[in-house]
Amino acid sequence: MKDLAAELKRLQDEHLYRRRRIIDGPQGVHLNVNGQQMLSFCSNDYLGLANHPEMAKAMQDGAARWGVGSGASHLVNGHSSAHHALEEELAAFTGRPRALLFSTGYMANMGIIAALCGRGDFVFEDRLNHASLLDGGLLSQARMQRFSHGDTDALAQKLAAHADSEKLVVTDGVFSMDGDIAPLPELTAVAKQHKIWLMVDDAHGFGVLGKNGGGCVEHFALGMNDVPILVGTLGKAFGSFGAFVAGSEELIEYLIQKARPYIYTTALPPAVAEASRTSLKLLQTENWRREKLQTLIKHFRHGANELGLQLMDSETPIQPLLIGDNNKAMAISEKLLQQDILISAIRPPTVAEGTARLRVTFSAEHTEENVNRLLNTLEQVT
Ligand SMILES: *Cc1c(COP(=O)(O)O)cnc(C)c1O
C-alpha cells in the first residue's frame, strides 16, 4: 500500500502542501477569512457578478419554481425548460446554432475530447493548457502531443509529421496562470490548412474580452468556421456555476450521444441555470464592468512597473507577478496576508518549476484605492 504519510511529509518539506481557507460570507473583493477582513485579489469572479442581487434573486425564484435537485441526468428526466432556455441563449450569445450545458468545465473538457478522439488519433495541446484539457486528452486514449506555449510553428511541424491520422488541436483562450491570450488567428489558419478541428476553452475570456463579453473569439472576430468547438464556463466571469460548449447542430447532437461526463451525471439544479440566464443578461448589458476592469488593469500595470515588479505579458484581469522561487512566493503571500491582502501563491505542479508566482486577479468590484493599497503593500513586502 502507498505510504500516504510519507508523501504528505514530502509535500510539506518541499513547500508544496496545499491547504484550504474557510471563507465566511459571499464571494467578493472583501472577504471574511477566519474572522479576518481581507481584501482579495484571487477570485475568478472578474465581473463581480457572483454576489449580484439579481443573480441571488434569480436563484431564489428558481428554487421556488423548480425546487432544488434536478432529479436525474439530462437524458433521463433532468433536462428542464430552464436548462433548455439557457442553452438557446448561450447559442445566440456565441452566434452558433447550438450550445450544450455541462455540470462543470472540467467535465465538459473531459467529455468533449474523449468523445471526439480515441485510440489511434492525435490530440495537440498547448503546453500551458488547463489540467482538464490535458486530462481529457489522457481519458480519450489518443496520442497526446504538447506544443510549446503559443508556438504555432511548432504545432504546424507536429501536425505535418502525422499527416494521416485524425487530429484535434486544443487550446485555452486565455491562459489561466499567465493571463495571456492564445494566438487564435494563427492557430485557426494552421488548423484550416490541415483540415482539422480547433477546440478553444475560453473559461477566462468570456465576459471579459470582446465588446459584448463574447470572449477571445469576439476579441479576434472569429466565427464557427474558425473555432468549431468553443467551450465556456459559468463559474468565472459569469459568477454562477456550470459550463457549456457551443458549435454546430451535429457537434452538439454527437456529444449528447457520446460524451460520458455529460450522459452519466445529474443535471445542474434548474435554479442554477436560472441564475446563469440572469448573469448572461448582466454580462452583456453592464459594459461598465469590462471598462472598469481595463482601467484597473492599466492602473496596476503602470504602478507595478514603477515598483520594478516582474509583470507577465497580459492584458486580461489575470496579472501574475513572477517570483520564481516557491519559498519566496509563499513568504510574500504570507506577508500580504498579515496586511489583510489575499493573493494566492501559485507553485508547481500548477506552473513550471522555477516560475512560482503571485496570481493577482482583478474584479470590476475593485476600486482604484484598492489597487493603490495593493501596490503600496507590495512595495513594502517584495
Ligand atoms: C476553471 C477552468 C476550467 C474548469 O471549469 P469548472 O467549471 O470550474 O470545472 C476549465 N478550463 C479552464 C481553462 C479553466 O480555467
Structure description:
- The chain is of the alpha/beta class.
- It has 2 domains: 20-47 and 287-381, Aspartate Aminotransferase, domain 1 (Alpha-Beta Complex), CATH 3.90.1150; 53-285, Type I PLP-dependent aspartate aminotransferase-like (Major domain) (Aspartate Aminotransferase, domain 2).
- Helices cover 44% and strands 16% of the residues.
- It is built from 15 helices and 13 strands.
- It has helices at 4-13, 53-66, 74-78, 81-94, 105-116, 131-140, 152-161, 184-193, 215-219, 249-258, 260-263, 270-285, 287-306, 326-338, 368-381; strands spanning 30-33, 36-40, 98-102, 122-126, 143-147, 167-172, 197-201, 229-233, 243-247, 318-324, 341-342, 344-346, 356-361.
- The strands form 3 sheets. The protein has a 7-stranded mixed β-sheet, sandwiched between helices. It has a 3-stranded mixed β-sheet with strand order 1-2-11.
- α5 (105-116) runs parallel beside α6 (131-140).
- It is globular and about 55 Å long.
- The N and C termini lie far apart (43 Å).
- The structure holds pyridoxal-5'-phosphate (PLP).
- Pyridoxal-5'-phosphate binds at residues 104-106, 109, 130, 132, 172, 176, 201, 203-204, 233, 235, 243.
